[in-house]
Design goal:
single chain; alpha/beta; 12 helices; 10% strand
Length: 320
């Protein structure tokens, strides 16, 4: 029997350690968020001003119907704005980021006449059908079997209405909500107070009369909209849902009204932004211009490629 000397044994052990270390997978790194282009909107205010003369203006990187999905990203992403928003003011931040990561990106305007800068105000089930037609056009032009929906505020709940209730379940893979109005909101308690003093319902009667029913539908837990959306389970089999909420939301309140519960065959991930980035101060309006949220959206769209979040400072309204 050959006996190895101690120096030789030490070298063998060192080589084994090096070999084992080399075989270990490299820890994933945070995704890099490219900076916005010069002159691009940096918040909903500048986005609104930029779309004032053209309310149907497309955000940069969106609605290129020659785009063909790749094997890495087979689902086009359809961005759905919220109440009193539009595609340009809501998605001028996120859309170019998704495009830079190789997605085919589309942004829909819905829920108001083309001439109106304030969209997403009409009857929500009617808006859901409008989004369905937009999705069918995207699928037809790109050849994709399914899309992923990313919605802000009402955009999250109307996307879920389409996916769950009116034929979208076979056409949607992921529904990602950013501060989504998945349940009725008190708008920081103002609606509760208004109902107590009898002021809210007359106001809603006026807004409905002038064509803004989406406001009342999202504020009334007994509305036909919410009864249909949540009354028979909040999810549908085969769809993955991700909801990202902020503790500083002043519109969808309490902020956990954004969250839903998974039913049979569905997957739900409810994320509180401050549990990921404790110093993030973004609110309901700033969440669509928050680079921390962009990273969470990319994780939501790529469940097999989860990355850590590089947290940066983010403020109410202005985002990052």
């Amino acid at each position: 029997m050959v006996r190895l000397r101690k120096p030789v044994l030490a070298l063998v052990a060192l080589a084994a350690t090096i070999s084992l270390a080399a075989c270990q997978p490299t820890p994933p790194t945070a995704r890099t968020i490219p900076p916005p282009k010069l002159g691009a909107p940096g918040n909903l205010i500048t986005g609104g001003l930029g779309s004032a003369l053209n309310p149907m203006r497309d955000p940069a990187g969106t609605n290129d119907y020659s785009c063909k999905p790749s094997a890495a990203h087979p689902n086009p992403v359809v961005l759905v704005h919220g109440t009193i928003g539009n595609a340009y003011d809501s998605w001028s931040g996120l859309a170019p980021v998704l495009k830079s990561y190789g997605y085919c990106v589309f942004a829909v305007n819905y829920g108001a006449p083309e001439s109106s800068i304030f969209k997403g105000t009409g009857d929500i089930p009617t808006s859901a059908a409008q989004i369905g037609r937009f999705v069918d056009n995207v699928r037809a032009k790109t050849g994709a079997a399914k899309v992923d929906l990313v919605g802000h505020s009402q955009g999250g709940s109307v996307s879920r209405y389409y996916a769950n209730l009116i034929g979208g379940s076979s056409k949607v893979a992921n529904v990602v909500g950013l501060a989504p109005s998945n349940h009725a909101t008190t708008v920081s308690g103002l609606l509760t107070l208004g109902r107590f003093i009898g002021a809210v319902d007359p106001i809603f009667a006026v807004t409905n009369w002038i064509g803004l029913p989406a406001l009342q539908q999202q504020a009334d837990p007994s509305s036909a909209f919410f009864q249909a959306l949540n009354g028979n389970g909040e999810t549908r089999s085969g769809i993955r849902y991700v909801n990202i909420a902020t503790k500083f939301d002043e519109v969808v309140t309490p902020y956990r009204q954004a969250f839903i519960t998974a039913g049979p065959g569905a997957s739900v991930q409810n994320i509180t932004l401050q549990d990921v980035c404790g110093s993030d101060l973004t609110d309901h309006l700033g969440i669509v211009y928050d680079t921390n949220v962009y990273q969470l959206v990319l994780n939501a769209l790529e469940p097999a490629d989860q990355r850590p979040i590089a947290c940066t400072a983010s403020l109410p309204l202005f985002g990052t």
